[in-house]
Amino acid sequence: MGERTGPVADGLVTLVRAARVVRSVGRRGASAISGVVTPVGWAFLVLVPVALVVGRLLGWTELAVVGYAAVVVLLVAALSLVGRNAFVVTLSIPHERVTVGEPAVGEVVVVNPSRRRVLGVTVEIPVGRGLAELSLPGLRPGDRVSEPFTVPTTRRGVVRVGPVRTVRGDAVGLVRRELEWTGVTELFVHPRTVGIPSTSAGLLRDLEGSPTRDLAPSDISFHALREYLPGDERRAIHWRSTAKTGTFMVRQFEESRRSHIVIALSLSSADFGTEDEFELAVGVTGSLGIRAIRDARELSVVVSGLTPEFAKRKKLEVRGLGTLSRNRLLDDLAQVEHDETALRVTDLARVAGEDASGVSVAFLVVGSAATLGELRSAALGFPLGVEAVAIVCDPDTVPGLTRLSDLTVLTVGSLDDLQRSLARAAAS
């Protein structure tokens, strides 16, 4: 108001403040109404004044009757929203992880902790992209009712269950009031896997450490003796040779290395002919990874990186999956999907070979769309001395084994074929 004072200025300030309060209350009221009134309810709200005004002006008694009937229906709908459900609702899923095809059941428990009877209510539980709807009966004071529901596990992925909400409304569907009672629970649907022979057998070498040309003061592979130099550890002194030569002699070893297994799964849609091939490839990756984890091997599981939309050039990167435990790996595999913008197997192998150090064995998991030439080119992405094994997943083909100078190609049609193919490759 600047420098103005007096009753007029005070009155204007009061009016402005009152207008702001009314506007705030109006916004909250409009938000509350819009949250419970359905599209059918808005149609009725438009129908009532139109029917009453037009019926009165034109003298159409029938139209006026329709308007009054709509008013009655709106009042009944409004009364159905009065009050609040005195419930305690909980959601439980006994298992957080299941395998594709295994049964998974959730349970909703509703308790009436009040001292009065409550009417029945409809409970809705979002399950993935679907919706489970349960009709619960009225509950007396202290009553408890539990209702199970099925969670679909026909496809690998992460199924979000919840939040559980109760729904109140009228029979016509003019209003709908939802109250959320729980949070969201995630159920991991893991890919199918199969037990395979230990990776310490024939096909995979260097698992117990093999010597290199690098010399070290201590390791498991003895190389030679040399004279003691300042800074050498005293525990490396070979006392028998020292006594014979009269000069301190120390042991020298060839440094050995533990094997580093890399499993590279292509996510490129161009490397797979069908969806079944990709699902089989995910199961193969999980089976190999679980075996390596159980054998306590150094393991890296990588998948193709994605190129952002409208990028000028493809993005050469890979994404690593968790390998700290079996569940961590399968949780990540449950969420992978093939994509047209993902790196193909040749680029995937090249990037994986550059990022991983000390690789001893590299598995390339692809579908039938990858050619033999592409697989050989992918194998060249790893350093010399790396055992490259390409596993081609094709449910419509006969399992086979092909050995090239720098590559072993296993063709599998099922997870059971993976067991037999690895055993055959190890024996040959």
In short:
The protein is α/β, with parallel strands linked by helices and 428 residues long. The chain contains 9 helices and 20 strands.
Task: Note down, in words, how this protein is organized.
The protein has 9 helices and 20 strands. Helix 2 (39-58) runs antiparallel to helix 3. It has a 7-stranded mixed β-sheet with strand order 16-15-14-17-18-20-19, sandwiched between helices. Mean pLDDT is 82; it is low at 204-222. The protein is elongated and about 120 Å long. The N and C termini lie far apart (95 Å). The chain is an alpha/beta fold.
What oligomeric state is this?
single chain
Instruction: Report the helical percentage.
Output: 25-40%
Written as H for each helix and E for each strand, in order along the chain, the element string is HHHEEEEEEEEEEEEHEEHEEHHEHEEEH
Summed over residues and divided by their number, the pLDDT gives a mean of 82
Radius of gyration: 35 Å
Question: Could you give the order of strands across the largest sheet?
Answer: 16-15-14-17-18-20-19
User: Helix tally?
Assistant: 9
Name the structural class: alpha/beta
Q: What is the tally of beta strands?
A: 20
Question: Quick one: overall form?
Answer: elongated
> Which residue ranges are poorly predicted, with pLDDT under 50 across at least 5 consecutive positions?
204-222
Q: CA-to-CA gap between the ends?
A: 95 Å
Query: Into which percentage range does the β-strand content fall?
Result: 25-35%
Largest sheet geometry:
7 strands, mixed
Element layout with pairings:
Blueprint: H1 7-36, H2 39-58, H3 61-79, E1 88-92, E2 97-99, E3 105-111, E4 121-127, E5 130-136, E6 144-150, E7 157-161, E8 165-169, E9 176-180, E10 185-190, E11 210-216, E12 221-227, H4 239-245, E13 249-257, E14 260-265, H5 275-294, E15 298-304, E16 318-320, H6 326-333, H7 345-355, E17 359-367, H8 372-379, E18 387-393, E19 400-403, E20 408-412, H9 415-427
Parallel strand pairs: 2-10, 14-15, 14-17, 17-18, 18-20
Antiparallel strand pairs: 1-3, 3-6, 4-5, 4-8, 7-10, 8-9, 11-13, 12-13, 15-16, 19-20
Helix pairs in contact: 2-3, 5-6, 7-8
